[in-house]
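Let's study today's protein:

:::
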Amino acid sequence: MNRRKFLTYISCGCCGLFLNSCATAPITERRQLKLIPESKLNAQAAQIYEKIKEKEKLSKDTKTLNSIKNIGKKMENSIGEYFYKKKIDDPTATFDWDYILIENKKVRNAWCMPGGKIAVYTGILDVTKNTNGLAAVMGHEIAHAVAKHSVERASRGTLLNIGTQIIDIASGGKLSQVNRTTGMNTVGLLSQLGIMNPFNRKQESEADYLGMIFASLSGYDIRETVKIWERMKEYNKGKAPPEFMSTHPSADNRIKKINEWTNEIILDYPPIKI
């Protein structure tokens, strides 16, 4: 089989695969590509989570940890109730929620793995300041999991790998030659610059929006959200990369959008009665 026929064969197969792998994000209804089974990522995430718990120093601040768990429980219930009342499949139905507080003042971060495994670093507490602020950060991270962003990213990684392999075949192996010569993984480079970043910024903005909705549904004051990013902007002053080089929207763009969304979300997504 010559190269042209091979490429045609591969392309047709890929098209059929992708057409059967389209989905939409909850609430925003943004179209998504999902080639990787969610159950597979959830299982991998659970294993990694246990290793992190063994490796990292877990905080003994039970008061803050209990606050994190209380916020998380409220969001678990509110999210489930929202989708139940809307008669929509609950995207968290298979989640096995868990929460940890990691002792590290240098890290201003939090994350939520696929399947609902959540970690908050003590360094972010200087930014969140209060319960509403902590709920805003947790809502954002939970939104990544609810919207299946990890599944989406993994699927796009698969798509990018297929694409670069096809290009390599079409170019007679020149792409592989460049990788060997430069010692650079082209897929990794494209994932960081130019190809994947705009998509990841969409996910981050979507997580901002959904996170505010989940916090509002859970009874928290989402007007605190913009204050967090204003404080984060000050902490990162002079350190943040240009937006086109980052997977996150710039602080100014983020603050602008959050201000635009706040009143709308307060009106459209009031605290849900359970």
Q: What stands out?
A: The chain is about 60% helix and 5% strand. The two ends are 62 Å apart (CA to CA). The CA atoms of residues 109 and 124 lie 5 Å apart.
